């Protein structure tokens, strides 16, 4: 379990993170939602040591994260940051394979894992293409595949997956495909997922817990339906929302609408 | 196309081997391939040819290969470290830093016992001071230019201008105050030369450059991951902090040793990795060996021009590489001004 206590972060006196306390548990899907610039990405980066901790403490399985080597952490968790600039010529499959760096695997086992993920994500046509020539959405799929193979390569359970806007640039089909696969991984391998999502309906459909952030603070935290209530969403985003039951699909969805 | 990419290293290795033989035949006077065979068969009969071959031509070609590999592979690693195709040792001032190290050492050297900077010791003390100059420069530029794990290209290039200017002043000062015949001239430091290809030089350069090459090849997967970004490399399990220090160490070692013995030979580290990337892609598995081979190839031919074009006199080799590299640099700037500089 990740345990974050009293985490603060500021840049030139501006508070980016303000007294964050949070637990990320295995076999659970935690969504972080909140307006732009509320500190969501900074939080994920700090948990993964991409930003130095200024004050506060983060532990993984009761051991301070500073105590782990990069490789040890890589075997326990995988991170998808927001898409980045990568102007280099690589085959897409070579990018996916980079996710296996931390593992000592035979060539055959590597091939099997890559093949499996490629089938799962339906990205067979992309694998021999040059990454540079792919569209934004296709790049996102390849990066997601890279991050997933990093989790997938060992049988060990109770790992963690951090996703910073995994659905960015994707069409609706792939948004659900990626979230479905994430959910499946969580259930099968008992992975703890921590995802930054912008769509509150997706947060409602996939999460077990939701944290709502504003101005560096976690304003609301709790079970999905409770946290995504009309009043709380209105308080954070200033939009109207309602749970609506769809007879045809036999489930509730969360719709939003501009405030009048 | 795929099979071409795979074989490209082999193809260029063959081209390099042919170039080596051709370069041995070229010089103040030509020795044909046939005459080389004759000479090797019967050294006594062809004494002059034998001496020219063994004492001058072959060591010089060997030195050319070593220096070419050093600049090629260092340029390739620097471009990965800075994540920018403009990060060439001569442009951002690493070569200048190395030669400043030597020049400062020589200035101070006049106060030290002469054994430290003359005779055999100079083969160790000169590269060492060049190495220190290079390490300090890369480290300073990297720290100056990186903001939140990203490299600010403008800062990197401007720092290079400042360091190059500072070196110009230092070397100028040095040539004014020094009267020592043994010490090298201004043109040597700014334009480079492969003229000193003594056995001592080769013996010190070979292990240094071999070690750098082996290091680079052993870290090819980590270097690939560094291209994704330092955060991504760390998240995937690469000890990025350590790797960066190792890259700086080995680049400084190769550049430092090359500069200490051959002066600044500009732009090789810029042009070579770029062509290698165009031909073989960015995967370090092919990109590194191809950079090494192309570096040796270009340096050999630049040297061939340098020593034949106004024969029996010699042009500084840096003139040739700058004539080739500077327009290339401008072309890269124009091509990348949208993406690279922002």
Description:
The complex is a heterodimer of chains A (260) and B (342). Chain A is α/β, with parallel strands linked by helices and 260 residues long. Chain A has a single domain (2-258), classed as Rossmann fold (3-Layer(aba) Sandwich). Chain A is 35% helix and 30% strand. Chain A contains 9 helices and 12 strands. In chain A, the strands form 3 sheets. Chain A has a 6-stranded mixed beta sheet, sandwiched between helices. In chain A, strands 2-1-4-5 form a 4-stranded antiparallel beta sheet, with helices on one face. In chain A, a hairpin with a 2-residue loop joins strand 9 (209-214) and strand 10 (217-223). In chain A, helix 4 (107-121) packs across helix 5 (136-152). Chain A is globular and about 55 Å long. Chain B has a two-stranded antiparallel ribbon with strand order 1-2. In chain B, helix 2 packs across helix 3. Helices cover 75% and strands 1% of the residues of chain B. Chain B has one domain: ABC transporter involved in vitamin B12 uptake, BtuC. The radius of gyration of chain B is 20 Å and the shape is globular. Chain B has helices spanning 2-25, 33-41, 47-81, 94-109, 122-145, 153-177, 186-191, 199-218, 220-228, 230-235, 240-262, 268-280, 284-308, 317-336, and strands at residues 146-147, 150-151. Chain B contains 14 helices and 2 strands. The mean pLDDT of chain B is 86. With 342 residues, chain B is mostly helical.
The name of the CATH architecture of chain A is 3-Layer(aba) Sandwich
How many whole angstroms does the radius of gyration of chain B measure?
A: 20 Å
The secondary-structure class of chain B comes to mainly alpha
Poorly predicted regions of chain A: none
- Backbone shape of chain A: globular
Structure summary, number of beta strands of chain B = 2
CATH domain class name of chain B? Mainly Alpha
Shape designation of chain B: globular
What is the helix/strand order of chain B? HHHHHEEHHHHHHHHH
Q: What string, H for helix and E for strand, traces the elements of chain A in order?
A: EEEHEEHEHHHEHEHEEHHEE
Main β sheet profile of chain B: 2 strands, antiparallel
Count of domains of chain A: 1
What is the fourth-level CATH superfamily of chain B?
A: ABC transporter involved in vitamin B12 uptake, BtuC
Note the gap between the termini of chain B.
33 Å
How much helical structure, as a percent, in the residues of chain B? over 70%
How far from one another are the termini of chain A? 42 Å
Strand order of the largest sheet of chain A: 6-7-8-3-9-10
Main beta-sheet annotation of chain A:
6 strands, mixed
Q: What is the strand content of chain A? A: 25-35%
């Amino acid at each position: 379990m990740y345990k974050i206590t009293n985490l603060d972060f500021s840049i030139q006196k501006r508070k980016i993170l303000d007294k964050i306390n949070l637990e990320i548990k295995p076999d659970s899907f935690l969504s972080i939602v909140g307006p732009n610039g509320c500190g969501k990405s900074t939080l994920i980066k700090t948990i993964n040591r991409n930003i130095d901790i200024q004050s506060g403490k983060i532990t993984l399985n009761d051991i301070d994260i500073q105590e782990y080597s990069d490789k040890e952490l890589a075997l326990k968790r995988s991170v998808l940051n927001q898409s980045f600039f990568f102007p280099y010529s690589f085959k897409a499959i070579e990018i996916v394979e980079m996710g296996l760096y931390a593992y000592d695997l035979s060539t055959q086992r590597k091939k099997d894992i890559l093949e499996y993920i490629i089938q799962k994500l339906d990205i067979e046509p992309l694998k021999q293409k040059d990454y540079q020539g792919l569209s934004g959405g296709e790049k996102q799929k390849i990066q997601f595949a890279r991050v997933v193979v990093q989790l997938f390569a060992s049988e060990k359970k109770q790992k963690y997956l951090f996703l910073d806007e995994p659905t960015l640039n994707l069409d609706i089909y792939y948004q659900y495909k990626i979230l479905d696969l994430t959910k499946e991984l969580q259930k099968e391998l008992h992975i703890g997922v921590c995802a930054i999502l912008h769509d509150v309906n997706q947060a409602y459909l996939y999460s077990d817990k939701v944290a709502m952030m504003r101005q560096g603070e976690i304003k609301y935290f709790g079970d999905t339906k409770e946290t995504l209530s009309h009043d709380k969403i209105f308080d954070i985003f200033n939009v109207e929302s309602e749970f609506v039951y769809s007879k045809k699909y036999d489930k509730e969805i969360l719709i939003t609408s501009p405030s009048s | 196309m795929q099979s071409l990419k795979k074989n490209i290293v082999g193809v260029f290795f063959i081209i390099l081997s042919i170039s080596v033989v051709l370069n041995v035949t070229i010089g103040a006077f030509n020795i044909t391939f046939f005459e080389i065979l004759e000479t090797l068969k019967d050294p006594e009969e062809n004494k002059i040819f034998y001496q020219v071959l063994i004492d001058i031509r072959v060591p010089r070609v060997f030195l050319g290969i070593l220096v070419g590999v050093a600049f090629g592979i260092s340029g390739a690693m620097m471009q990965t470290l800075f994540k920018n195709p403009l990060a060439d040792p001569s442009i951002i001032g690493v070569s200048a830093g190395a030669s400043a190290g030597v020049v400062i050492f020589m200035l101070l050297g006049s106060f030290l016992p002469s054994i430290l900077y003359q005779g055999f010791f100079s083969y160790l003390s000169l590269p060492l001071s060049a190495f220190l100059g290079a390490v300090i420069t890369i480290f300073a530029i990297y720290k100056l230019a990186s903001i939140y794990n990203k490299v600010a290209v403008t800062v990197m290039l401007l720092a290079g201008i400042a360091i190059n200017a500072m070196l110009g002043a230092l070397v100028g000062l040095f040539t004014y105050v020094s009267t020592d015949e043994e010490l090298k001239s201004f043109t040597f430091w700014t334009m480079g030369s492969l003229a000193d290809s003594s056995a001592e030089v080769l013996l010190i350069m070979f292990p240094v450059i071999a070690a750098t090459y082996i290091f680079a090849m052993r870290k090819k997967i980590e270097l690939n991951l560094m291209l994704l970004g330092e955060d991504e490399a760390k998240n995937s399990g690469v000890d990025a902090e350590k790797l960066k220090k190792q890259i700086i160490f080995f680049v400084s070692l190769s550049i430092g040793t090359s500069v200490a013995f051959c002066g600044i030979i500009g732009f090789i580290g810029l042009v070579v990795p770029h062509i290698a990337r165009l031909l073989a892609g960015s995967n370090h598995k092919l990109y590194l060996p191809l950079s090494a081979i192309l570096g040796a190839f270009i340096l050999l031919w630049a040297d061939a021009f340098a020593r034949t074009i106004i024969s029996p006199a010699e042009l500084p080799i840096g003139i040739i590489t700058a004539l080739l590299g500077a327009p290339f640099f401008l072309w890269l700037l124009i091509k990348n001004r949208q993406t690279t500089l922002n």
